[in-house]
Design goal:
It is a single chain. The chain is built from seven helices and 14 strands. The chain has 204 residues and is α/β, with parallel strands linked by helices. It has a single domain, classed as 4-Layer Sandwich (Metallo-beta-lactamase, Chain A). The protein has a six-stranded mixed beta sheet, covered by helices on one side. A six-stranded mixed beta sheet has the order 7-8-9-10-13-14. The model has no long low-confidence stretch (mean pLDDT 97).
């Protein structure tokens, strides 16, 4: 599987395109940059998927759904956040992006087939109520749960610090140390690196 990363938006968030055998999934299009559009050209995009529905991860939903003629997918517990983009925008004094509503929801344990690979959906609330991650063969697309040397913020509406740490402990730390973590912000890391050196995980 090829994983293409694109840093975008003033929040410097990471959008990913997962691609295999001519099929693709666009994860967290913060905006529809030309680089992202060029990447998906000629691919069959199965879905546009939001790991969570904070404003910096969904700003390109509308453009990418229209361009790719693909369904929008997220977890149902983040639907209120997607419906409340104007309120989110007001928090940051930004214009509110438009986004279509999800065509369907994914939940804990669902599997997504991409080419010959299978991605497993895990529900990891804490940064937001409906946050999900995708677990592939030796990697995760982790959204804003775990970062290199840090964890997702929990001071936004719907955030819960205790719940976030529980999600990390129960869903991420059982994965092998060599598992690569593609983060929603900043550089990629590994589970082992964070287990050993992340100050937020010392007591987990």
């Amino acid at each position: 599987m090829n994983i293409h990363a694109f840093e975008m938006t003033p929040f410097c968030m990471n959008c990913f395109v997962l691609e295999e055998a001519g099929e693709a999934i666009v994860v967290d299009p913060g905006e529809a940059t030309q680089e992202l559009i060029d990447c998906v050209e000629g691919l069959h995009v199965q879905m546009v998927l939001n790991t969570h529905c904070h404003i910096d991860h969904v700003g390109g939903n509308g453009a990418m759904v229209a361009l790719c003629k693909a369904p929008l997918v997220c977890h149902k517990d983040d639907l209120p956040m997607l419906e409340g983009l104007e309120m989110q925008a007001a928090l940051f004094n930004l214009p509110a992006p438009s986004s279509p509503m999800p065509d369907r929801f994914v939940a804990e344990g669902d599997e997504i087939q991409l080419g010959n690979s299978t991605l497993k959906v895990l529900h990891t609330p804490g940064h937001s109520p409906g946050h999900i991650i995708l677990v592939g063969d030796g990697f995760i697309i982790g959204g804003d749960v775990l970062f290199a040397g840090s964890i997702g913020r929990t001071d936004l509406p719907g955030g819960d610090h205790t719940q976030l740490l529980q999600s990390i402990k129960e869903k991420l730390l059982p994965l092998p140390d060599e598992t690569r973590v593609y983060c929603g912000h900043g550089p990629e890391t590994t589970i082992g690196e964070e287990r050993r050196h992340n100050p937020f995980l010392v007591n987990l």
